[in-house]
Specification:
7-stranded mixed β-sheet; single chain; 5-stranded antiparallel β-sheet; Arc Repressor Mutant, subunit A; mainly beta; Neuraminidase
Length: about 700
Amino acid sequence: MSKAEPKQLLLNDVLIDFASLKIKVAGKWCAIEAKQLQLLRLLIAQKGQAVTRDKIMDAVWPDVVVSDNSVSQLVTQLRKSLSDDKNTAYFIRTIPRVGYQLIAQVNDAPTILEKVVPASPRTSALFIVAGLVLGALFTLLSQYLLAPEQARLDYQYQSRLTSAPGAEVFLRYSPNGRYLAFSQSNDQQSQFDLAVYDNQSKTVHSIKNSGYSEEAPVWSPDGKWLAYFRYDPISCDIRVMSVANAIETWRLSPEFRLTRCQQRHGPTKLHWVDERTIYTTHWQDEQARLIKYTLSLTPSPKLEAQQVVGDFKPLAFDISVDNTLLILEKSAGWYTLSEVDLNTKLERRVIKRSRHSHAPLLLDSERGYYWLGDDALRRYGYNGNKQTVHEPLGFIADIAINPQTGDIAHAEGHARINLYQIELDLNTEQLLKSAQQLSSSSRMDMLPAVSLDGQQSAFISLQKRGITGFTHSEVWLKHKQRKSANLIATLPSDITPKYLLFSPNGDNILLADQLHNIYLINTFSRRLVPIISGFEQLNGVHWAQDSHSIYYQAKNPQGQWQDWRYDIQLTSNTLVKDNAPLETLDDNHLLWQLNASYIEYEKHVSSFLAAALEQQLPLSQLLPSLSLFKPAVFNGGVYYVLRQGHQLRLYCYLTTQKRNVFIKELGVYGYDLDINLNISSSADGTHVVFSQVDGIETDILLHKATKAETQ
């Protein structure tokens, strides 16, 4: 007689109840789907061994034909239920090219009797001593236990604070919590003016509308000064104005120029942490660096010193009054959120790693908590707990917390992101022949790819709910000779697209996601097929000239690169060379032959343009522009976008002629939305498709902090 399968098991510290379809994670019971438990039973039965995808399909879907993608989604769902992470796995490990392995400790669920420890003579004596000690501490412990527990905060939507055309961003509360300063775009969205919302009078006051762009206001710790960036088309200053008098007089207050700053991209903020210290970012050594300004305010504001802090390369950051730095950085495709004590050794303590950027971010007034505005407004604890406060209809542009009440204000809205296609004649002085909109304005369309012959364009289309969420993403194909585009693939929710790549004959498209998986889409059958997965990093994905094979490099668990080949007809991957050198720019791989899959692609394109245009453009303006808007290489040059002030301009650098040519204006872009903007070109450079932001609309919403009721 075979041993009956247990109804309950303990996996690490997670209790599994197979009979009731429940699991207990962190002391809380949660429902779990039956198919997830089927997969878990299979992995437990084969504990320590790699279970192939075929075996999983046979066990979970015995009478149904499913794809590899169904297995991937089921494993992802099970990991989510167990609070497991693919990159730091404690339960399920991915075995590249094979399947999955259970690595958790499996034990029988403890019974009540097993939790009772029988007493011995020695332990009885110890109990007497322990009882005396506990008796002495009873009074103190009872006071602590009976003291009212600090209530958790809940957040309830209260109202919109603004309703005007354009964008309201760069939110900052004053130290006394009465005023909310922000930047408000003008009607043309070509610049920002300074405005302040008064919580007492419920009124918005215009503070600065000088005809220049005043951005990113920040209050001094005593609330008597307001610092901000002032941009014009060719320069930037950090300025300070007095706000010690009545708010009605602020617009007449004199302003003082603290220092010059750089024209750069992105939502750069100022952080005024004490009377003499302001932090911000500065472009240096081809990357953003954290910089510290030391100033004095008497007799008038002036800069005394400035210095680069550590080796930090912030995409976004926040600093508390006790000099705790919360910083978001990117390295090797990963976004890392870390905490740093600026008073000590400047060492990073990693809080969270992700494939997605999570700006904006904000430190909470309670230590150990912070806010992120990605696809929702959430409050996170350093221990991994999270509290969803608000799910926007669009995206969240900025967050501010009232230091007195804990109320949360955030800017929320929509962006109109469209694709445009242009035709050019590179043999004439006037290169541009025609320009027209490629995609619909009803959705956000991005990540364009142009076929080598320029006859087809593919792009990703997604709904206007969240930018980083990529819910309901689709792949569309537009032929040059046809009026409208056609849907060729609907993407599962767990696929976050990274780039598209046409085959030389234009019959197939590769789609890469942020987790280094590659999918094949045939433009005729319109099927999405996973072909490459299970690797931690890929490089140099490219088609063979006959369009029958795909070559790529993958990093093995030992950190060595391997050359691989995928055969479309055989639908199989073959190892070509072990311990191979990293493919990059060299005599065998010319610049125009590289694509977005090459790890050093952006570095090589930036270095090439920086050397070619060094005498024509300041690098502090060129390099941030290339980071904001991804350029496109072709066999005769490079298309790139230059940001000057808030204006975007498309250029073409022709390699043979060594000529830099202005193509057209791409409108204004006043606020970085943390989205993919890029250009794609045909092989000869005569057909180009690019992303364009045609407008940003945001309003400020307020969520009231209230004490949660205790159970």
